[in-house]
Model the fold of this input.
Amino acid sequence: MKTTVFYYTGTGNSLWVARTLAKALGEADVVSIASWLKDKQPITSKVIGVVFPVHMWGVPAPILRFIRESKALSPDYLFAVAVDAGQVANTLVQFKRLCKQNGLKLSAGYEVQLPSNYLPWGGAVAKELQEKIIAAAAQKIAAILPVIQNREEKPVDKGPFWPGIVFNLLYRVSFKQVRTMDGSFWVDERCNSCAICRQVCPAENIKMESGKPAWQHHCEQCLACIQWCPQKAIQYGKKTAGYERYHHPEIKLTDMTNKQVDKS
Ligand SMILES: Cc1cc2nc3c(=O)[nH]c(=O)nc-3n(C[C@H](O)[C@H](O)[C@H](O)COP(=O)(O)O)c2cc1C
Ligand code: SF4
Ligand code: SF4
Done:
């Protein structure tokens, strides 16, 4: 049966997971959630996957919107992959609850760990470590595949109980601030006005003013702008100028700027 794997991504990790899954499943399309929310292109698949990054120990706002609006897709089998840097917390429990509230049944939910893209807490890890993490992720994806192929029902992955309580609180507090956290972005003299930051932003939150990016305060904190700027000219607060940027090594800028249906 045909599968559609939806993804949302800032630095390509979730796109890579979506593509890896789709390739192994065969007869599967990979569709950007950011694009689908704009054009609502018809989807006929009855097996649906949702692949998204964990943001602040929970589900990012665009995914909440997607779940509300995707109930019309009425899948026969729905699975999710939360892509993170090691702290899934209660993200998939929250996601499963959201599905239920919207009349959808989540049959399986997995965490896949990939290198962190949270630049304010530090730059990209060394290439060798990235390769090890990606190889471990590929193994986890291989383990998930038979569950999806056999349409099995599985409990969702979740983090430890007590830290989860703190993470729930942190999620609630930070979620309210996400839209205006772009107030901490600024651009340095290396900016050459290429406008790539505007093109990669899934939220259309960047306008070019006199050749420089201006953030519009409806940010989703995906960090695509700061991570993909080829000049490393975008900074967040005071420390990021010296940090190495990260994006998934197999995902190219063109994958980010062309958010239409991706059949590769
Ligand atoms: C705003 C923000 C918050 C994040 N919060 C978490 C988190 O709570 N737990 C975690 O393990 N990783 C966290 N990360 C790291 C990402 O989930 C991780 O790097 C993911 O693979 C990025 O996927 P993407 O490239 O598809 O956007 C966060 C990243 C961002 C940008
Ligand atoms: S991507 Fe970087 S160099 Fe290009 S316009 Fe944006 S800030 Fe300037
Ligand atoms: S402004 Fe930057 S961090 Fe915010 S949604 Fe757009 S690309 Fe993502």
